[in-house]
């Protein structure tokens, strides 16, 4: 058996094409503000890709780029200004930030109705209670991919490897909301391989290159690889793609799987924030 390759790039493009048509109907262009601190090479690429895709669909995206040694009060002051700026509909802070900054404090400064990354604590709590206006972009993108390739998520056993606030935990909430049975595993899980093998769906977001091997996977399982690393000069995920594709029912490649979906969902969240803000004027 050879797995279906889940083409996240194609699905994300279709989604963005539809979103662009909806944006054309708006009275004014939605605006996303991106705060970047330092010159982390991966972050520079991610921000450039977000800005490019936003412009493609008719959304304004302004990047505020601080030096590596920027002080926290500078960043917080800017966020407070953006919170008050009615032309700005969404605000994101590109992670990771330099270690001298209090990441949590900076993220908490973003106004709730402009927190399109859904990283504020109140947004995380709302997601578990099914009251969030939107979810973090990556888990939301993963869910959309799963719905394209799994006929009915209800009752499926989903195993998540990784417990981060950005992917693992919100992913678990979204899948529980779809009536999946969810197991969250992580680096300290005993018998990780055996647990993963019980999953009808496996979402891997642990940052360990090629961790998941062929004998970890239940035949026919749907495998979503969120990880991205560079090994021997080549990009790879947390799943050993070349091995696992011979066992899985469907699998995302790296690159070209989850990454494009993350950007698409971020832009969707900004569009949703715009609509909510217009309703409240």
Can you describe what's shown?
- Helix 2 (41-56) links the parallel strand 2 and strand 3.
- The longest helix is centred in the last third of the chain and has 22 residues, at 258-279.
- This protein is an alpha/beta fold.
- The chain has helices spanning 8-24, 41-56, 72-84, 103-109, 121-128, 137-149, 168-177, 192-196, 241-244, 258-279; strands spanning 4-5, 31-37, 60-66, 90-93, 157-161, 181-185, 201-204, 222-225, 229-231, 234-236, 250-251.
- The protein folds into two domains: 29-112, Leucine Dehydrogenase, chain A, domain 1 (Rossmann fold, 3-Layer(aba) Sandwich), CATH 3.40.50; 136-259, Rossmann fold.
- The strands form three sheets. Strands 1-11-8-7-5-6 form a six-stranded parallel β-sheet. Strands 3-2-4 form a three-stranded parallel β-sheet, with helices on both faces.
Look at the structure and name the CATH superfamily of the largest domain. NAD(P)-binding Rossmann-like Domain
* Major sheet: arrangement of strands: 1-11-8-7-5-6
**Global geometry:** globular
Task: Give the biggest beta sheet.
Answer: 6 strands, parallel
Provide the structure class: alpha/beta
Q: N-to-C terminal Cα separation, in Å?
A: 55 Å
Unreliable runs, pLDDT <50, ≥5 residues? Answer: none
Instruction: Give the radius of gyration.
Output: 19 Å
The whole-number mean of residue pLDDT values reads 96
What's the count of strands? 11
Strand content: 15-25%
Q: What do we call the CATH topology of the largest domain?
A: Rossmann fold
What count of helical segments does DSSP give?
Answer: 10
Reported CATH architecture of the largest domain: 3-Layer(aba) Sandwich
Helix content percent band: 40-55%
String of helices and strands: EHEHEHEHHHEHEHEEEEHEH
What is the class of the largest domain in the CATH system? Alpha Beta
Number of domains: 2
